[in-house]
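hey
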């Protein structure tokens, strides 16, 4: 079903948009998120108005139902709206931020609207939103605090991230949300707290989130920590993810494994592609260039390999240009 959704999204058109908007539900499921992602790819101004209405309906739900709303669904909704029309989505939620910021007490509905608005502002790159978001960094509602800090941090508020470090002792669900925020903000000051958390935790989900985030932060000093984690882990998923994180940091130790996962393991292809793009490895480019010419490789894999080659070359060009500018 999800594959059919993807195909319809690529086709687009008014019938496809109407089909998805008419069948949106307010429930936690991979299918609902896929519907929103599809609308983000093929939506128009009318679709955006309907998504604004969908958002308002969620935010007006009774308190007991609001608590069951999936955070990932709201993130996907915000991403879909900004994909359709970034300026219109930003203007709509800036009005919401101004309205809510004038209140002394927030309702559950306001908190939900702030969560969606934070993500929209972050996607839109509107730094003026920081003044409104910063009011909620120390909120007693941990979910709201994490969402506003994540948005403000990605918009360039250098001091926002330190508020996340103070909440590292929260529940596992909240710590996973904090790691997701740090992954998106990419502030290297988060390296030490995450390494500490990785060494202390025995929850598989938290361990994997720590490894993924360390790989994304781009600090090569954590390679030794990730190698230790890899060597101590017996589970295949932990070992694969730590290998990909090490490759992503530019270390060629597990380059062959990363390429093998890209070519033959659909469960890790997207992560392997991301790791190889960010590795900036000339050796990887040479190997992948040879692979593209082989007939035995599936077309989908060839397409991913070609994307890695093109993006890697672009990254290398940007890095060289930055060095020249610095000189």
């Amino acid at each position: 079903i999800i594959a059919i959704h993807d195909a319809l999204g690529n086709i687009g058109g008014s019938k496809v948009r109407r089909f998805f908007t008419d069948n949106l539900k307010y429930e936690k499921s991979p299918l609902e998120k896929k519907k929103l992602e599809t609308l983000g790819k093929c939506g128009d101004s009318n679709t955006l108005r309907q998504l604004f209405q969908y958002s308002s309906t969620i935010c007006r739900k009774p308190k007991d139902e609001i608590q069951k709303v999936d955070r990932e669904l709201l993130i996907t909704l915000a991403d879909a709206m900004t994909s359709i029309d970034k300026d219109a989505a930003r203007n709509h939620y800036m009005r919401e931020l101004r309205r809510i910021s004038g209140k002394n007490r927030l309702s559950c509905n306001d908190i939900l609207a702030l969560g969606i608005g934070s993500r929209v502002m972050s996607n839109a790159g509107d730094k003026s939103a920081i003044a409104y978001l910063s009011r909620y960094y120390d909120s007693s509602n941990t979910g709201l605090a994490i969402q506003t800090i994540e948005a403000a941090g990605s918009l360039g508020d250098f001091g926002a991230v330190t508020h996340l470090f103070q909440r590292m002792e929260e529940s596992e669900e909240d710590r996973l949300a904090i790691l997701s925020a740090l992954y998106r903000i990419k502030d290297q000051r988060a390296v030490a707290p995450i390494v500490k958390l990785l060494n202390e935790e025995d929850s598989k989900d938290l361990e994997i989130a720590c490894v993924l985030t360390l790989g994304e932060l781009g600090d090569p000093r954590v390679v030794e920590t990730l190698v230790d984690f890899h060597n101590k882990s017996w589970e295949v998923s932990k070992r694969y993810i730590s290998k990909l994180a090490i490759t992503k940091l530019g270390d060629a130790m597990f380059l062959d494994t990363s390429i093998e996962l890209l070519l033959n393991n659909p469960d890790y292809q997207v992560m392997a592609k991301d790791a190889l793009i960010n590795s900036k490895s000339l050796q990887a480019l040479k190997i992948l260039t040879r692979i593209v010419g082989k007939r035995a490789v599936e077309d989908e894999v060839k397409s991913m390999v070609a994307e890695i080659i093109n993006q890697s070359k672009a990254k290398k060009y940007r890095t060289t240009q930055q060095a020249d500018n610095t000189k």
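The chain is about 75% helix and 0% strand. The chain has a mean pLDDT of 86.
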